[in-house]
Fold each of these.
Amino acid sequence: MEESASLGQFIPLHYHYNMLSDTHRLQGFQEAIHAMVRPGSRVLELGGGTGVLSFFAARKASKVWCVERNPELVREARRILSRNPGAERVEVIEADAFEYLPPEPVEVVICEMIHVGMLREKQVPVLSSFKQRYREKFHAPLPLFIPEAAIQAVQPVQQSFDFSGFHAPVPLFQHPYSMQSDTKGLGEPLPYQILSYREDLPGECTWKGEVTVTEAGLLNAFRFITKNILGVVPAENRTIDWFSQYLVVPLEEPLPVERGERVTVSFFYRPGDPLETLSGSLAVMKD
Ligand SMILES: C[S@@+](CC[C@H](N)C(=O)[O-])C[C@H]1O[C@@H](n2cnc3c(N)ncnc32)[C@H](O)[C@@H]1O
């Protein structure tokens, strides 16, 4: 298989252990799964990893099919799940999520193959393929999806690329729930894409738009933000959200900007593409 096709689909085991200690991620999913999985229902998880989300689902579901393609992780998920009471209802299946369908219809599908910008990992193409094959096989309404939707935004920033005196304008990841003292926002985050997993999913993330500068500075990067709507709780009029790590992409040519100025930004990539496709297409122009 070509590297670009398998990109983001083989995550080393120690990343999975790290993902278990990301409490914002796990608590968000746990809450959404608790809110959306009805007692006795059937659940499919695509890309199960250690099996943690399938385990949350098994607290209420009668059956969970947990699909994982990496054989090392399949073994690890089975080992870990066997130590968790209730996980007997989880069946770990070694299969490709682009091909697998459960033996019977399910009420909920969980899929967390999410990278900021929907880059690298295959969340969008996997779910597009799943929906088409599910409809053909079962002629049934689509299940609920966890997450339900995502909002993607871009923000003009002035970013320090100084690393102990070493200047390196390279893409950076940031923890979305902590202060970023090396980043100065020069404008508000602007949504460039809203995707709902139950609707038709986009084949590309092309955008050209104007951002208004609210702080003078050196515009030398754009920050990409992906807010995942894990679930909607209509009774409480709220959503359960989880932000992917932010991505700061440097500009080839930094641009001094003044408050009130407008700049046009454009980029092009497809969901699942490498970061380089986004960084290579990112362009900015003063009006
Ligand atoms: C970001 S991890 C999430 C794992 C787990 N759901 C969790 O929340 O901790 C994505 C998982 O999807 C798996 N994966 C990626 N592509 C896949 C595919 N085509 N078929 C099945 N699993 C896949 C990866 O091996 C990885 O375990």
Note: The chain has a mean pLDDT of 96.
Amino acid sequence: MDSGALLFKQSSIRPGQQKQETLTARGIAQAMQAMNCRAVGIAPRDLAGGIDLLKEIQDKQNLNWLSMNLVDPKTQQPIFIPSMHVVVDGTGITILGLTDNQADRGKDANYSILPWQEVLPEAIARTAGSTDMVILLSNYPEKINNEIAGTIDGIDLILQSGHSTSNKPPNKIKNTLLAQTGARGKYLGLMHVNWTENGQWGENISDRIRAEQNRLDRINWQIGRMEKRSRDKNLENDKRYKQLTMEKDLANKKIAALQKAKEQATGEPCSFTNQFIGLKSSMPEDREIQAIIDQTTLEVNRLNRKRVHTSARQQNSVLSTLAGWQQCRQCHPKQVSFWQTTDHAGAWQTLKQDNQQFNEDCLLCHVTLPYYDADRVRAENLLLQLPASLNTVGCEACHGPAAAHSKDPEVAQTILPNEKTCLQCHTPDHDDNFVFSDKLGKIRCPRG
Ligand code: HEC
Ligand code: HEC
Ligand code: HEC
Ligand code: HEC
């Protein structure tokens, strides 16, 4: 299961990226299906490609979108399945989808999103008696999910997504457990649930009785020792003794209450274990999923290769500030020769070997574009048609645009890179062991 915010990075598609982003979205859906995903909630971001794309994915990739409050504006009826019922090991489970209605969704009149207060209480009421367990897939922020758990009874588990990048150990509000896995596919959340007739989350009562019994034994031992040591003294007025006897009474009462609860409960309370599995790059790839990724990225590359010839480069571009590495050779031959031995010089070639040299999601870090301003670079349509001299992580990726400096080095200065410069590209996603001081040594240009 997933609570949504899967398909797109933002709530709208960037200009010119319609095809690449919908291709990628389809690939993601295909991979989710290959991983046996039973149900996916719809977050506002999943709507970036429009309702029709979601419908198409539902039909072609067999992915079950769930949302009870994403409705047709005319009929007010859900556009996708509001909930589904599955039986796992004899336990009937109802899964409900809820879409965050707080985002501004622009002018799309194809759908509206109702606030949870209008639909959720009724939907939960309808499940009463007909299911053993209720799971809500919600992409509302945590604060609202907490409010939902606090005000509506009958939801056993809320899986949330889309608003935070961190893992959160499950936390319980009344009888609702709330759980969340870090965003963007970095972790897998693995939760084992032991759901019993009891229907209430709790620690195992027998364990609690045993713990209480141990406590009582310790108290009795302390009381016994005090009595033994002060045979003649009157202990009635001893503060410590009084305290211990009071604790003894309390422990006895607690054990009695727990034993009674145990007799009355139908079965043991429900329990779970939870684990986060970090999806590190060192983990072996799954063959089937890798094939989907390869196919998707190859299609993206093919698609963009065609675009190269149809999209016009804008005038007044950031390109005019860049010289390209060949320009530097005349005055800095030593540094150029050194740089050519570093991996940076072959960064674009690396993409080409993978048939990814037209994938705009990769190019940003494998070419020379100084102000790491993805939006501007994309708006100017630069990535696909850089001159060969910039198709590499060249001098100006670290030293800044140097066209002016090359013409008149006395007047126009360059910059020297610091850690921040590197981190624009050496992000944890692409380099999970970047230590500046270590790596600097490998690429620092020679003096003179
Ligand atoms: C016409 C000769 C010439 C060209 C072409 C040239 N430079 Fe320079 N560069 C110089 C001179 C001269 C200095 C020393 C200037 C100074 O110390 O103020 C210098 C200094 C530098 C420095 C050191 C700056 C510092 O603060 O220590 C860097 C980095 C640099 N250049 C990068 C480049 C890059 C990158 C290119 C190509 C895009 C380039 N230069 C092209 C002449 C040139
Ligand atoms: C424009 C993006 C970009 C910037 C800025 C950048 N790098 Fe890189 N770096 C790359 C890419 C891409 C590769 C991989 C090239 C390849 O193998 O094809 C790489 C490879 C390396 C490598 C070799 C592989 C490794 O990890 O040992 C080192 C070392 C390195 N970079 C250090 C740095 C340092 C230090 C800085 C900052 C001073 C820096 N880089 C700035 C993109 C960048
Ligand atoms: C945010 C910047 C960034 C983006 C985006 C990016 N890369 Fe890289 N890439 C790097 C850096 C940094 C390295 C060097 C890391 C290292 O070697 O430790 C690298 C190294 C590589 C390498 C050589 C090292 C290896 O892992 O075998 C390949 C291949 C590669 N990238 C392919 C891609 C492809 C394909 C894409 C697009 C799907 C992409 N990169 C997108 C920054 C990026
Ligand atoms: C990955 C980042 C990176 C790239 C790419 C890079 N440099 Fe450097 N360069 C550095 C660093 C780091 C220093 C040392 C800065 C310092 O001393 O603080 C340096 C120093 C220099 C200096 C000054 C040397 C001195 O006398 O102190 C020059 C000149 C220079 N680089 C030119 C170039 C040229 C030309 C290219 C392209 C062929 C290039 N650099 C590519 C990172 C880079």
Note: The mean pLDDT is 89.
